[in-house]
Structures are given as structure tokens and as C-alpha cells.
Write a structure and sequence with these properties.
Length: 496
């Protein structure tokens, strides 16, 4: 097996392709209740816009396109995610092949992404916008190192496309191309790449991709900026307290994103660590600088901008280069990669098997202990209850909880869903005696729902001339729940 992958490193892509196919099968085999990010994507896939909320819109655009092509379904959600993650590994493999001569280390570096929890587990469990940054981060690294090694109009274009897409995937992605730019600028060998006329192509393409969302961003600063800043800055009193909290959380985030990778790679190359520490090459120098510049930039944000809440998933695109960097160090030290490759394949196989097993069983093991997850909430039964009550499909579903609203969109794919959380989107709908408006709400914990939430629904009632509806509360058994354990929903049917 080791010699096979060493002689044919591209075979690892076939293995990873099969791995993501299994992920797709697993997601389609467990309940079609949605996690938080999944539900948001299902809700927002109803319309195309240059901005939606505090997150940039690239992944929303991809989901909108996928839903338009194959319809509203769990498949459209899962297929897009698995495809983008698989392409992340493909571009990472291409980057490793560009910068590493040793084919065994190319495989080790590619499998290194499996050691990043946010990539291998969290991205599959629920993340969406972070999936986009993993994909575009790998694409950027490929374009960047290709430009350094064999510059061409295509390589500069790839960097421009990746930079533009990255900026409309997650705002924090900007640190990666900025760090790469500075790292190249201070390197005497690669500085000339920044003074190539083809850099204009990079700039033009990135601006063209970013511009539509940038115009929306400027018109919605309160929405786009305030929530993001609120997430990154806390309420610590005093400069020293804020800085201490910020650095503590930053260090914790770095351990969360890179700790497992470092431990595993230390084990893989245990006998060669002293030589690797001393070894250096033009690739290790620029990759190491990128990491140091990113870390330094975040440290400055903590000191100067009041940032004190750095989450590990925000560091994902910035630390993607770490497994590749370690393998660059190994090659520069002329390490025999036979044993590391063998161990890496074994570790990668264990990680892939464990992740698939945990994701496949997550809807089953919680109820055994009375701990229900979002996947156990009976949205399908709730939708069927509504259908039986009105004798068909509603003309419109109205809610104010994006998680519930997105799940209703999945369960009633032919029915538009209007969420108070997104007041700018008001779908067109058919309203008659056979297609009434259905209002839905609940308590977050599945307990007794609150009374009629007039604050959220009164405008829809007034604007459409609806009769005041009768409220219904239903208690439905959890999916795979214990006997007697139920989840409550409220709904109201309003006719013209």
C-alpha cells in the first residue's frame, strides 16, 4: 500500500473521492432534520442577492445555484458541501505536488488536512461559509505557489479569482492573501513576482468578483459590520482585561485548529525532528513567514482593535498551510518519508472511519440518554400534521425562527417560506381557500410554545387581509426518541 501511493500519489484523490461519497450517503441516510447552518442555507436559497446577513454571500450563491439545478432537497445541501470539500483536497494535493518533489510527502501533506478538526469534522457536521473558505483557501495556495514557481497569466488569474471568492466567503479570509503578499514582498527571490504586469490580472479579477457584494456591504454597514464586530469583541472592562482575554482565546483557538495536527506530525516525524528544525528552503521560508504574519496580524488586532473573541473556525483558512509547511521542512531535511507515509495512511484511515461512524450515529446515540439533537426534532411529522389539517399544501409558511423556517422549507419544497428574520425578502405566493397562510413557531427547547406572537405576524395578517387564525399546539414524538418524549410546535392557519 505504501509503495503504491508513493509511486502513484494521485491515487489518494480516488480514496478521498470515495470517502466523500460515503459522507454523502451517510448524510442522506440519517434524518432529514437540518442543523443551524444547513437550515439557513435552505431558507436563503429561495432568492439571489448580493448580500443576506453578516456573512458574505458566496456559499449562498452556490447553494442557490445547486437548489435551482436539482431542487430543494437534502441531496442539494449535502452534494454541494461534499463537492467543495473534495475539491479542497484536490487543490491542496496540487499545491503539495508543486512544492514537494517527494511523492510520499505529497500524500502525507494531503492527508494532513484530515488532522484539522474544523476541516475533517465540523465542516461535515454543519458549517457552510467555513466550507467555502476551506475550498478557496486551498485554491489560493495552489495559485500562489504556482505563481511563485512557474508564473503565467493563468496562475495570476487563479490568485485573483481565489482572492475575490475568498473575500466574499468570509471576511477574515483577507488575512491569507495579505500575509502571502507581505511574505513574497520581503523575499528577495520572489519579490519580482509582485512587479510583474500580470499582477494587474489578479487585481482586476479580484475586484470584479468582490465589487457587487462590496456595493451591498457599503449600503448595509450596520448589518454586515455590527454583528461581526459583536462576535469578535466582548464586553471586557479595561484594556488589560481585554488583551488578556483576547490572547487567551487566541492561543486556545490555535490549539484547537492546529494542536492535533502538530501532535500527529510530531509522531510521524519523531526521529527526524532535530534535522527538520534546522533545515530550510525557499519554500519553508515563505510558508513559515505566511504563518508568522497571520499570527502577528491577529495579535495586533487584539492589541489595537479590541478583538478578544477569536474562534478556532475563523483560523481555518489561515492555518491550512500548516501540514504542507511541515512536509516542506521534512523534504528540506531529506527525511526518508517511507515510515511517515505508512503511518499517515494508517492514521488517515482511522480518522476517516471514526468521523463517518460518529456522523452516522449522532442521531441515534443521544436519545439513548435522553439528550436530543437537532436531527431528532420531528419536522417531517410537523409538516405532515399541517398538510392533513388544511388538506394540502399551504400557499405560504410564515415564521420568525430561521432554523425552524429553513426546516419547513425542506419539508414543504413547493411552498415559499417568509421569515421575519429576513424582512427584505417577501416571496410571491398563491393565496386562496385551498392554499392558506400557515404561521409556525415554537419554544427553542421544544417545551410549550409561547402565545400568538403578534409582534412578528401582525403585518402579514394586515397586508393580506387574513382572518385572525386559530392556534394549534401539537406534541410529536422525537425521531428515534424514547417512548413518551415529545417536541411541541405551534401553528396557525389563516384564510383570506
Amino acid at each position: 500500500m505504501k509503495s503504491l501511493f508513493s509511486r502513484r500519489p494521485h491515487l489518494i484523490l480516488a480514496v478521498l473521492g470515495a470517502y466523500f461519497l460515503l459522507h454523502l450517503i451517510v448524510r442522506l441516510s440519517i434524518p432529514n432534520a437540518l442543523e443551524l447552518d444547513e437550515a439557513e442555507q435552505m431558507l436563503l436559497s429561495q432568492w439571489f442577492a448580493f448580500g443576506y446577513n453578516s456573512q458574505p454571500p458566496f456559499y449562498n450563491w452556490m447553494q442557490y445555484g445547486m437548489t435551482s439545478l436539482v431542487g430543494v432537497s437534502l441531496f442539494s445541501l449535502s452534494f454541494l458541501k461534499c463537492t467543495m470539500l473534495f475539491l479542497s483536497y484536490v487543490f491542496y494535493w496540487l499545491t503539495a505536488r508543486l512544492t514537494l518533489k517527494n511523492s510520499s510527502l505529497v500524500v502525507v501533506a494531503t492527508l494532513g488536512l484530515l488532522t484539522v478538526p474544523q476541516v475533517v469534522f465540523e465542516a461535515q457536521r454543519d458549517l457552510t461559509h467555513s466550507v467555502a473558505t476551506i475550498f478557496v483557501g486551498s485554491l489560493f495556495l495552489y495559485g500562489f505557489f504556482r505563481t511563485l514557481k512557474t508564473p503565467s497569466a493563468i496562475s495570476y488569474a487563479i490568485v485573483g479569482i481565489a482572492t475575490g471568492i475568498g473575500m466574499i466567503s468570509k471576511y477574515n479570509f483577507a488575512l491569507l492573501p495579505a500575509a502571502a503578499l507581505v511574505a513574497a514582498l520581503v523575499d528577495t527571490d520572489f519579490r519580482k513576482r509582485l512587479f510583474d504586469w500580470r499582477l494587474i490580472l489578479t487585481i482586476v479579477l479580484s475586484i470584479a468578483i468582490v465589487l457587487p457584494h462590496a456595493l451591498w456591504f457599503l449600503q448595509h454597514l450596520d448589518l454586515a459590520v455590527d454583528r461581526t464586530l459583536h462576535k469578535m469583541t466582548g464586553e471586557e472592562d479595561g484594556f488589560l482585561s481585554q488583551v488578556a482575554t483576547g490572547f487567551f482565546r487566541f492561543i486556545s483557538a490555535m490549539i484547537g485548529i492546529a494542536g492535533l495536527s502538530v501532535v500527529i506530525f510530531l509522531a510521524l516525524f519523531a526521529k527526524s525532528l532535530p534535522a527538520m528544525w534546522r533545515a530550510s528552503s525557499h519554500w519553508t521560508r515563505i510558508a513559515g513567514r505566511i504563518l508568522l504574519i497571520e499570527i502577528g496580524a491577529i495579535a495586533l488586532m487584539i492589541l489595537l482593535a479590541g478583538v478578544d473573541n477569536v474562534a478556532d473556525r475563523w483560523l481555518t483558512p489561515l492555518f491550512l498551510i500548516l501540514p504542507l509547511y511541515i512536509c516542506m521542512k521534512a523534504e528540506s531535511a531529506e527525511v526518508d518519508a517511507g515510515a511517515p507515509l505508512r503511518k499517515s495512511i494508517a492514521v488517515g484511515g482511522v480518522i476517516m472511519g471514526a468521523v463517518l461512524a460518529v456522523l452516522a450515529m449522532r442521531a441515534y446515540y443521544g436519545p439513548l440518554f435522553g439528550k436530543y439533537q437537532r436531527l431528532n426534532i420531528p419536522y417531517a411529522s410537523f409538516a405532515e400534521t399541517i398538510r392533513k389539517d388544511i388538506g394540502g399544501e399551504p400557499g405560504l409558511v410564515v415564521g420568525y425562527d430561521p432554523h425552524l423556517d429553513g426546516n419547513m422549507r425542506l419539508q414543504m419544497p413547493g411552498t415559499p417560506v417568509h421569515s421575519y428574520f429576513y424582512p427584505d425578502f417577501k416571496p410571491t405566493f398563491q393565496l386562496d381557500a385551498k392554499h392558506p397562510v400557515v404561521f409556525v413557531w415554537r419554544d427553542d427547547k421544544g417545551k410549550t410554545p409561547p402565545a400568538w406572537p403578534d409582534y412578528y405576524f401582525k403585518d402579514v395578517i394586515a397586508q393580506n387581509g387574513l382572518k385572525q387564525p386559530e392556534i394549534h399546539v401539537v406534541s410529536l414524538p422525537y425521531i428515534y426518541g424514547r417512548p413518551g418524549d415529545t417536541y411541541q410546535f405551534a401553528y396557525a392557519v389563516a384564510y383570506p
